[in-house]
C-alpha cells in the first residue's frame, strides 16, 4: 500500500489536469457564445418595436455564434416562404472564437505551481472536446428555430476550425518547433528537418507567404475604402433606407463592421482579376461588370463599380497583386542575402527562386481559404452564389506572386550582392592606400589627405642622413647671390626646404627603437655657403621621442 500510494497520487493529478483542460475548452466556448448573446440581447432590448420574443433573440445569438465557426445556417422565415441558406461567415466575428480556443489550448500547457502540465496530445484533445461539447449544445438549441444549422457544416468546416486553432495554441506553447515528423514519414523528410538550413528556408517560406496574403488583404481594403468614398452618396442612401430608427441603424453598422474583412477579400479578388459574383448571372472584374446582378440593399455593396466595361481606374487595381509579389520577393531576399552576411553565406539563385516559388504557393493557398470563407450563398436561385470563387482567386494569387516574386527575388539578390562587391572593392582599395601611406610609399596620401609629390633632386634640400620634404626654397643661391626672378616673384608659400632630421627621428623612420637622446642645446649650425641653416624647430626631448609613434616607441624606462 505504501508503494502504490505515489502512483495513485500521480494518477489523480493527471486526471485533475485533464479535467481542467476540458473545463478550459468549455469556458472558452462559453465566453464566445456569451459575448455574442449579450450583443444580440442589447440590440433586441433597444429595438422599439420588436416582433420577436427573448427566445427568438437567444436562438439568433446561438445561430450567429455557430455561423462564426463556418457553419451554414438556414432561415426558415422568408418572404417567399422557401427556407434560404446563409453561408457567408463574418470574418471579424470569427476572430473571437478562434482566438479564445487558441488561448485556451496554449494556457493549458503552462504548468501551475505545484501541478504538472499535461501532454500536448492530452491538452489538445481535452480543449477541443470541451469546446465542441458546448457547440453541440448550441446546435441542438437552435434546432427548429428561425435560424437552424445544417449538420454537415458542423463537421466541416466548424470542427476543422476549432481543431486548427487548438493545434496552433499547443504548437505555440511548445515553442513553435518544426518536427520531428511522425515515425511513418520517409527517412528523407526526417533528414531534411534535422538540417538547420531546411528549417530556416521553411520559416522564410512561411513569413513571405503570410506577408503576401497580408498585402493582398490590405490592398483589397484600400480598394474598398476608395470605392466607398467614390460612391459615398449611394452608400449613405442605402444605410438610411435599411432602418428608420437608431437601434436598427446601429445593428446595420455593426453588421457592416464585422463584414469589413470579407469586403477586403472581395477587393483582393477584384484586384487579382477573377473578381466576385453578385448572383449566379453576374460577375464583377476589372475588365467588365457583366450580367444581371442580384444585389440586396447594403452599404458595402454600394462600392461595386458601375456596370459596363472597365476603365483605367478599374485596371489600376492590378497594382495590388504586384505589390504582393514584390513583398514576397523582399521577404525572401531578406534571408537569402542579408545585408550583414558575407557573399559565401548568401543562398544560390536556385535556392532563392525555390523559396520564392513556395512562398507564392502558400500565398495562393491562404488566399483561396479566405475567399472560400468570405463568400457563400445568402439565398436561393440568383443569390445561391455570392462572393469570389475560391479556386479561381487562389490560382490568380499563385500566378501573380510567382510571376512577380520569383524574378523580383533573383533581381534583388543580384543587386545586393553586386552592391556588396562594390563596397568590398572600395574598402580593399582604401585599405591598400592606407597601408601604402603608412609604409611611406611616394605619392600616396592617407584617406582624407592631399597627396604631396616628392621633390626632385634639383629643388629639394636633403641631408645626408635621410630625406626630408622641402618646406621652402631659399631665395639666395649657393654662392650668396639672388636670382632676379625669385626677387620679383617673392617667396613661394609651402615651397621651403625641409628641416633637418634628428637622430631619433631618423631612427623612428627607419623602424629602430629610439635610444637615449640628449636634449638639443646647441645653436643652429652654419650652412655650407656661410648663411644660417634652416631652424630645426622639432623638439628632441625624451618624452617627445617616445610619443612620436606610440606603437614604435620603446618602454618608458628606455629614455
Please explain how this structure is put together.
The longest helix is centred in the C-terminal third of the chain and has 49 residues, at 390-438. This protein has helices at residues 4-46, 54-67, 91-108, 120-141, 151-173, 187-194, 196-230, 232-242, 246-258, 260-272, 312-315, 319-336, 349-374, 390-438, 484-489, 503-510, 542-547; strands spanning 73-75, 84-86, 147-149, 276-278, 282-284, 288-291, 308-309, 386-387. It has a five-stranded antiparallel sheet. The chain has 559 residues and is mainly α. Residues 1-8, 441-498, 500-530, 532-538, 543-548 and 552-559 have low confidence and may be disordered.
Features:
559 residues; five-stranded antiparallel sheet; flat; mainly alpha; disordered N terminus
Strand and helix layout:
Blueprint: H1 4-46, H2 54-67, E1 73-75, E2 84-86, H3 91-108, H4 120-141, E3 147-149, H5 151-173, H6 187-194, H7 196-230, H8 232-242, H9 246-258, H10 260-272, E4 276-278, E5 282-284, E6 288-291, E7 308-309, H11 312-315, H12 319-336, H13 349-374, E8 386-387, H14 390-438, H15 484-489, H16 503-510, H17 542-547
Antiparallel strand pairs: 1-2, 1-3, 4-5, 4-8, 5-6, 6-7
Question: In brief, what are we looking at here?
Answer:
The protein has 559 residues and is mainly alpha-helical. It contains 17 helices and 8 strands. Strand 4 and strand 5 form a beta hairpin.
Q: Class by helix and strand content?
A: mainly alpha
Which sequence of strands runs across the widest sheet? 7-6-5-4-8
Instruction: Using the alpha-carbon principal axes, give the shape.
Output: flat
What letter string, H or E per element, gives the SSE order? HHEEHHEHHHHHHEEEEHHHEHHHH
Helix content: 55-70%
Task: Give me the Rg, rounded.
Answer: 41 Å
- What is the number of helices? 17
Quaternary structure of the protein: single chain
N-to-C CA distance: 89 Å
Strand segment tally: 8
Q: What ranges have pLDDT less than 50 throughout 5 or more consecutive residues? A: 1-8, 441-498, 500-530, 532-538, 543-548, 552-559
Largest sheet: 5 strands, antiparallel
Which percent range describes the beta-strand content?
Answer: under 5%
